[in-house]
Amino acid sequence: MASQKVSLACTICGSRNYTVMLSKDRTVRLAVKKYCSHCGQHTLHQQTK
């Protein structure tokens, strides 16, 4: 099974802080609460391409 590299972007400031490897058969966008160094707090990060 192949995987692809995607970025996680902060929903507050829009900066792309993290990259993750996900399988290609994933149909729902990943949304995780992570620390944003630009905002200085834990915010929701969503999958981008």
UniProtKB/TrEMBL annotation:
Bilayer-crossing regions: none
Pfam families from the UniProt entry: Ribosomal_L33
Gene3D superfamilies per record: Ribosomal protein L33
Keywords for this protein: Ribonucleoprotein, Ribosomal protein
A GO term for molecular function: structural constituent of ribosome
Keyword Ribonucleoprotein on entry: yes
GO cellular component, one term: ribosome
Single GO BP term: translation
Keyword Ribonucleoprotein appears in the UniProt entry: yes
InterPro entries the UniProt entry points to: Ribosomal_bL33 (IPR001705), Ribosomal_bL33_sf (IPR038584), Ribosomal_zn-bd (IPR011332)
Membership in a protein family: Belongs to the bacterial ribosomal protein bL33 family.
Name of this chain's protein: Large ribosomal subunit protein bL33
Source organism per UniProt: Leuconostoc fallax
